[in-house]
Predict the 3D structure of the following.
Amino acid sequence: MTATDLEAVNSEIVACTRCPRLVRWREEVARRPPRRYTGQQYWARPVPGFGDEAARVLIVGLAPAAHGGNRTGRVFTGDRSGDFLFPALYRTGFASQPTSEHVGDGLKLAGAYIAAVNRCCPPDNRPTPIERDNCLPYLVAEISALAELRVLVCLGALAWDGALRALAASSAARSPRPRFAHGAEVEVGRFVLIGSFHPSQQNTFTRRLTPSMLDEVLLRARRAARLGGLPPHTSV
């Protein structure tokens, strides 16, 4: 597979209207933003994946945030979860800078690609099973297009479940299905799955997930993917 394959997948994602409820919601959010975002132009479309086309590590989230990826057009960008995730990616050598503010801000990923189980922001951050299944083929296609992929880091139980479903659809399955836990690590076919609590405010404010905990997961992913030494700027 080549960069052209990922571009084709991303084009399909951006044009998707399979889930009427999510289409209505993402557009309604854009029409009625909170005061802090008044006047900003929202993306208000499905959010494609982002990162290194030669990635050996795929980071899987659940869905874009209503005023994060749905606003900026880049996964985990413009919300508190991304404010926690990208510094960790920078510390562990996956990101060129510790911030992700908007498309075109100069951020580049090395060895990693970021995607999600669902590509539209769902009400209450909860897609329905049908909406999950409608979107899952895009994750399957990304896994196929990332020819060097070896490790999936799943941010939260729903991302873990979605990644397992996507791998099963790609003819890689594990029986019985492994249970999610922070730090869980399993082999599924030729891939390694590593679980982490999601970097949501609910988890980071309560210190259920700390920076050092996320760093350790990402460092384990580097080792499992055999990505070699850390760049000079890293601090872990």
About this structure: The mean pLDDT is 94.
